[in-house]
Every structure is written in structure tokens, then in C-alpha cells.
Design a protein that fits this description.
Layout: H1 4-10, H2 12-26, E1 30-36, E2 42-50, H3 53-56, E3 60-62, H4 66-74, E4 78-80, H5 91-97, E5 104-111, E6 114-122, H6 129-143
Antiparallel strand pairs: 1-2, 1-6, 2-3, 4-5, 5-6
Length: about 150
């Protein structure tokens, strides 16, 4: 089985345009691809486009925190229109990044039947899960590149 985090780091140049595409296609202020590390304790930002782009690539947060953590834990997509009212929102992580969003759309990234990461769009103009599912498939292909 492929080491997903190592693949994400090796293919950052392929993942970055996919994060940018997610933000553009959903009209978001930012998008990120987070990959769970090999021990499953942290999520590492493999690619970030938009707000926080320069600060977040390579940054880590605990895999069980925030909306992204909830997506990873459940393996199900989430659309949250009011993050301030959502108890899962990790405001401290957002504040540390320098950008606090109002809304998020996030879907899990899965390989071999297990969730290995999350694709998130912050402050999207629309929540288009089929578009994100298509991009998730492209992310999977990018992780398999030699």
C-alpha cells in the first residue's frame, strides 16, 4: 500500500492546482487538501490555495479536531453554512492560520476503504459535492504518480 502522506509530499506540485480548482469551482476563498499522517494522529496540509496558502502547507493539526476531523472520523462529507454555531469548528486552528471562515464544505479522501484525508473548501459560494467528488478522484490519481 502506498504511503499516502509521503506521496502527497512528493506530489505537492500536482496537488496544488487541484486545491486551487476546488476553490475556483465552488467560488471559495480557500481550499485545502489534508492528509492523515502514517500514525493517524495528525492531518498535514499537503496543498492549500487562497487564504493561508503561504502559512499552512506542511502545517499539522490533530486528526480528531474540527470539521475536517469530523469528516475524517465519519468518512462522510459535511456542509456547514454557519461555523460560528457549529461545535466541531476548531476556531483556534483557523485563527492560527490567519483566516477564520464562516462556512465550509468538506469531503473525505479515501483509499483502499479507509479515509486518508480531506478536501475542504472555505467560504464556498455553493456546496457542490459532485464536483468535489470528481476532484477527490483526481487527487487519488495524483497520489499514484511515480
Amino acid at each position: 500500500m502506498i504511503d499516502v502522506l509521503a506521496a502527497a509530499q512528493a506530489h505537492r506540485e500536482a496537488l496544488q492546482p487541484l486545491a486551487a480548482s476546488a476553490a475556483a469551482l465552488l467560488g471559495g476563498r480557500a481550499a485545502s487538501i489534508g492528509i492523515v499522517d502514517d500514525v493517524g494522529r495528525d492531518v498535514v496540509f499537503a496543498a492549500v490555495a487562497g487564504e493561508g496558502e503561504d502559512e499552512l502547507v506542511g502545517a499539522r493539526f490533530p486528526a480528531g479536531e474540527g470539521v475536517a476531523g469530523a469528516v475524517i472520523a465519519s468518512g462522510s462529507a459535511l456542509v456547514v453554512d454557519d461555523l460560528a454555531a457549529d461545535t466541531r469548528f476548531a476556531r483556534d486552528v483557523a485563527t492560527a492560520s490567519g483566516y477564520v471562515p464562516d462556512a465550509i464544505t468538506a469531503i473525505p479522501l479515501a483509499r483502499d476503504g479507509r479515509t486518508v484525508g480531506v478536501l475542504s473548501v472555505l467560504d464556498p459560494a455553493r456546496a457542490d459535492l459532485p464536483v468535489l467528488e470528481t476532484l477527490a478522484g483526481l487527487i487519488d490519481v495524483a497520489l499514484d504518480l511515480p
